[in-house]
Amino acid sequence: MSVVNPANLVEGTYPLSIRLTDQYNRTTLTDIVLRIYGDSPAIVPLPVELVYFRAAVQQSQVKLQWLTASEENNKAFVVERSADGKQFSPIGTVAGAGTTVQPQHYSFVDSEYFSGTTYYRLKQIDFDGEFAYSNVVAVRKGGQNAQENTLKVWPNPFEQEVSIEVFSGTAEEASIDLTDMQGRQVHRATVQLKPGLNELNLPLKGISTGMYILRLQTKAINQTAKVIRK
């Protein structure tokens, strides 16, 4: 694979995700690191293969868990926290496993998370000082996370569109299906959720008058709501 630098990025390390979809709509997601030195960008494998990174509220604390499939030259994970999903601060460090091809389970407990939504990410650091960031995950005070969700839809009844509010614990793709009371699909849309609270607009022009089931689904969320087209 050849690499160019059309955006004239400065020297440094940039974690990237590449999504490939074949003719059968099967998708593969690959994480890489783009390292730029001078005018010569180069793609290198991630030193740590992160399988998942999760956050959940448990007994007034946030428990973070992550799993790696393999590690190379991994010194540590720095756990970072944010109130807005943009400005992160370190709150703790968990030692890495160095170099291994065996799965490694990690956990970290945060008892001082914010009111409202709290965001987390991992900063993985190599022994040579190189580092990369994980995906961002989020929880809400009161125990709500991606697995225990409340889907809000308004106005209801609607005329031409609905607004949807849903909380996601991580950045992920979601499908929205509208079916009639006989189970027939009348509308389908795909949206990209961000960590935290998402507000979406769903145009539904041309839908006949009646009652429908709106379902929003991801790997972690499966929520439904009854809506009425007036």
From TrEMBL:
Entries under InterPro entries matching the protein: Ig-like_fold, Secre_tail
Coiled coil: none
Domain (Secretion system C-terminal sorting) ranges: 153-228
Protein name: Secretion system C-terminal sorting domain-containing protein
Organism: Pontibacter korlensis
